[in-house]
Amino acid sequence: MLPEPMVCELNEALADDGDQGLKAMIKASTLQRYIGFSLVAPEMPALRDALPEDSPNWGLLLRWAMSLYSIELFHSIPEDVRDGVGQNWVKNTAEMIDTKGLPTVSTFNDVSTGEGNEMRRQITKMAVEDAKMFSLNTIIILDLKRPDETGSFSRMTSIEEMRKVHKLMGMDLSGVEGLPQSECTSKRMFIAQPVTLARELHIIRIALSAPLVSRLHSLDANLQEVEQEDRLLIDKLDIILRNWSLVSSI
After folding, report:
1. Residue 115 reports pLDDT greater than 60
2. CA contacts within 13 A on the Cβ side of 35
3. Is-contact 249 178, C-beta < 8 A?
4. Contact between residue 214 and residue 135 where contact means Cβ atoms under 8 Å apart
5. Where in the chain are the domains?
6. In this model, does residue 134 exceed pLDDT 80?
7. Neighbours of 161 (CB within 10 A)
8. Coil, helix or strand for 30?
């Protein structure tokens, strides 16, 4: 799946077989826990040579076996129907977040696709087309703010803070002393890991999954149930951020 220029760059980087070269670093790393010799294309012989030949990647095989059910169910839905489900979820969820009017959580406006950025918008569009990617957006970027020393809500600018938020969302916080108790605090919620978009710009995202598309498309779909789950997710984020001084040390 790597573009040819990247394959060439990787082959050149791995050509140095010295003790301090990239190839030696890979051999000494834990990369073999994630990918093995048989999973690397023959166009990358140096990388194949740096990985063990007789070490089956059972973890990867298990993940694929477990994923096949969701993959097949997802692709049994016509593409235009899938796209419609995705568009509705993104639209409705983003509207729900913005309607709440929280000082802590809002949707993030990607300046590369905003008004007054025609050149950047074209660049983004061309990049998507060159990568042969679908234009359907299934990701909502969240803008998170927490109280500062003055009580005002300031944007989170640290990747460490974002990682802490991600960790707290996956925890049962119902027993934290001093934290407002709510239906959402005990629920473990797993969202996308934070990523860095620029040197001083780190974001966290919620995204539409294949199982959720299949669930929303099913004949017995309970749309209100899914909407309530999304509301609880935002409510938990709000509680975490409002009480940052209380939970940041957990």
Report:
1. no
2. 11
3. no
4. no
5. 4-56, 78-247
6. no
7. 18
8. coil
Cα 235 to Cα 182: distance, rounded to the nearest angstrom: 9
Give whole-number Cα distances, 167 to 84, 142, 156, 204, in Å. Answer: 32, 16, 15, 12
The pLDDT, as a whole number, for residue 93 is: 95
How large is the average pLDDT for residues 166-188?
A: 93
Distance between CA atoms of residues 239 and 179, nearest Å: 8
CA distances for 138 relative to 98, 135, 214, angstroms: 17, 9, 14
Is 91 a residue whose pLDDT tops 60? yes
3-state secondary structure of 158: coil
- Of the pLDDT bands very low, low, confident and very high (cuts 50, 70, 90), residue 198 is confident
Q: Please give the radius of gyration of the chain, using alpha carbons only, rounded to the nearest integer.
A: 22
What's the pLDDT tens digit per position in 206-250?
999 999 999 999 866 678 899 999 999 999 999 999 999 999 888
The residue with tokens 């950047």 is 120
- Strands (E) in the chain, as ranges, are 105-107, 139-147, 153-155, 195-198, 201-207
Residue type, 197: L
CA 115 to chain centre: 25
Which amino acid, residue 133? M
Measured distance CA(153)–CA(43) in Å, rounded: 51
Q: For residue 66, give the amino acid letter.
A: M
Kindly tell me the sign of the dihedral angle through the C-alpha atoms of 88, 91, 97, 100: negative
